Amino acid sequence: MKHARDWGQVLISAGVVVSGLIMLAQIPLIQADAGYAGIGPRFFPTVVGSGMLACGVLLLIEALTRGFPDVEEGPHDHEPFDRRAVALVIGGLVAHMALIEVIGFTLAGTLLGSCVTLALRGRPVIGVGASFAVSAAIYQAFGRLGVTLPAIATGWL
Amino acid sequence: MEGLTALFTSGFAVALTPINLLWALIGCTLGTAVGVLPGIGPAVTVALLLPVAQSIDPTSSLIMFAGIYSGAMFGGSTTSILLNTPGESGSIISALEGNKMAKAGRAGQALATAAIGSFIAGTIANLLLTLVAPFVADLAIKLGPADNFALMIFTFVAVSAVLGASPLRGITSLTIGLCVGLTGIEEQSGQPRFTLGLLQLADGVDVTVVILGLFAVGETFYMAAYEGGLVSQVERLGSAVRMTVEDWKRSWKPWIRGTFLGFPLGTIPAGGTELPTFLSYTIERKLTRHPEEFGKGAIEGVAGPEAANNAAATGTLVPLLTLGLPTSATAAIILAAFQQYNIQPGPLLFDTDPALVWGLIASLYIGNVMLLVLNLPMIRIWVKMLHIPRPYLYAGILIFATMGAYSIRQSWFDLMLLAMVGVLGFLMRRYSFPVVPLVVGLIVGPIAEKQFRRALSISQGDLTVFITHPISATILAVAAALIVLPLIVKRLRKVHDDNPLEH
């Protein structure tokens, strides 16, 4: 069991490799009229991109051989990944960003908070009520402190 | 002594004005609250308040942020003692003994030794900060760009490679932070970098979005994925929060030892409060006269680490204020707050704006007294907050996070970035990638690039400037040793372990 391959580790390492490659691929797009002293705007991106690529490759080797060393133990070791709950949170966030300028901060916030409550198996009615209360309070309080938040009825919701 | 004079002549004059006392009190109260609540910490809170802080005087808002920082250290211990899950990473160790004490009906004593220990450690650490900071600032003012760049490299190495289980994962996290920090229009040449052609990325990714995404959204994803059904057990507070004579006798030495362990470790950029708390716990377990109680609720195991944790938090202010180098996530976001006001922390600040620096330091002394009151006689209020059920707590946290991200420039684009950074935060938590290197890389990276270029334009493009300058050469050598030495030790230990004859 100890050396069972963790595909999550392999995927995340591959993700780092790909990110490094994307970074390096972007570098030719930076116009470099090699600034004063020969160090233009490309130098740091090249160093960081190469560093990320190197890290990704080393991580991939670890993931494919003995696995990441000293991974912290936690609930993820024995609890199954709850897809429904994560989908609810993502859905809430996406709905929130799509609707905030349509239905205002308070209602979009209520929707998001309700999704989170459902995801974490709270009581729906309390979730909706608490989310509305928090969103409305934030709108009122932070609005007065000079933070601009969109509203469906300015000053109220 | 220079520090004490400045503290009393300009510091307290600033910190004791009614308005600044009020901001300190707000900060300490908020800090204690977020320290108590799981899922939201001081870094997230400061990030949320950045947009509001724009309309407040810089000194006042920094006093509030410092209050949040120290308040969270106090509040975190309440959670780690009464709840089986720690509120802040620095309190994980005290959760070992503290929660056992609470289970045995000694919650009051554990909370008292944590609060009084934090107060004593905080006060001594503030005094050390007062004495040490001007001295370090005097030294730092002599550093050139090459030396400053070397110091930043040292910080990168220390926060990513020294702490945590895997240097490789730490450095990966650092490069992600540096990459995000590079995104946007480059100041000197006006060139867009890594913007993927998106106009919204021209200004770069806001620090607030990254902090809120990594900590608040990432944590919510993790809860949803693995801990949806979790109901945490809050221990009863029971009798009064006070200590017996015996408790005092057993606590005072660990408090002092914890302080003198925590402060110096906090000042070096090996970052964070985990290491000093862990060391303090180990030392107390060795020195105790009651070894049989360790693991079952020994008061020394709460007193020492709690003192160390607070002293270390104050210690991180030394590099932050004198060098402009943050070594923890909260220090990094406080640096971002300074930058928002176009103030660059560093040695010059002690000369250009002594009222701000000393007012801030003086407010730490006052905040400590406020925190002692908030966390001893008023402890029951905070304990009530622990009973907020998680689903509604996280719903609230996420609503706050979206407010913080949206209010930066009223754009849904930042909400999308927030969600994406949240996924990244989840993955990093799930696969044990430390997040502090990412935050430090994001904030210090752009400063390091500026120093690098400045150094090279002075040396007319000669890259050897970093190794021919004695100070920067020394710092870089120490940084290299920090990477290489642990590898050698690991190799040696492996050889040792593989040799069965030695056992």
Automatic annotation (TrEMBL), chain A:
InterPro entries: DUF1468
Keywords: Membrane, Transmembrane, Transmembrane helix
Annotated source species: Plasticicumulans lactativorans
Transmembrane intervals: 7-31, 43-64, 85-112, 124-142
DUF1468 domain: residues covered: 17-150
Protein name stated in the entry: Putative tricarboxylic transport membrane protein
From TrEMBL, chain B:
Residues in DUF112 domain copies: 21-439
Sorted UniProt keywords: Membrane, Transmembrane, Transmembrane helix
Transmembrane annotation, as ranges: 6-26, 33-56, 62-83, 110-137, 149-168, 317-338, 358-379, 391-409, 415-444, 465-489
InterPro entries found in the cross-reference section: DUF112_TM (IPR002823)
Protein name: Putative tricarboxylic transport membrane protein
Organism for this UniProt entry: Plasticicumulans lactativorans
Superkingdom to which the source organism belongs: Bacteria
